[in-house]
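CCHC-type domain-containing protein (Peronospora matthiolae), 138 aa
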Amino acid sequence: MQLDPLPEQVRVTIFMEGLRTGIARTEVFRVHPSTFEEAVDIALNAEFNFKAARYGTHGHAQRSFDGAEPMDLSHAEEEERALLAVEQQRKIRRCYMCGSTKHLRPQCPLRKPLQSRPSRNPPSNPKVGTERENGNSQ
């Protein structure tokens, strides 16, 4: 007892649906082949072309340059560091309280003196509870 083979279009559809997401699947769906053999050839060619473009013909990653020598950037980097240092020296410093360039926040005349600031801890009342401690209760 021999089963009837699947129709050609069904074989093509099953093959296309079974391909993993990637360049081969994209290419087979783009071309939409009419035979199973054509679908397999398209998938294999797409994979081969993708790998050849990515890794070259010998399987090694291709270089992005053709023997060109890289530039020496050390002088440019030193010059950039020097410019940044000069810029930092020129940076205008301002008082955070009033914005003046003549002084900084600790010397700002608008800043309240330390003595006039309220204390964070409330003052303790020395008279509370002294009668009991002295034994002078009436």
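The radius of gyration is 42 Å. The helical segments are 8-18, 23-31, 36-55, 74-90, 130-134. ok done for today
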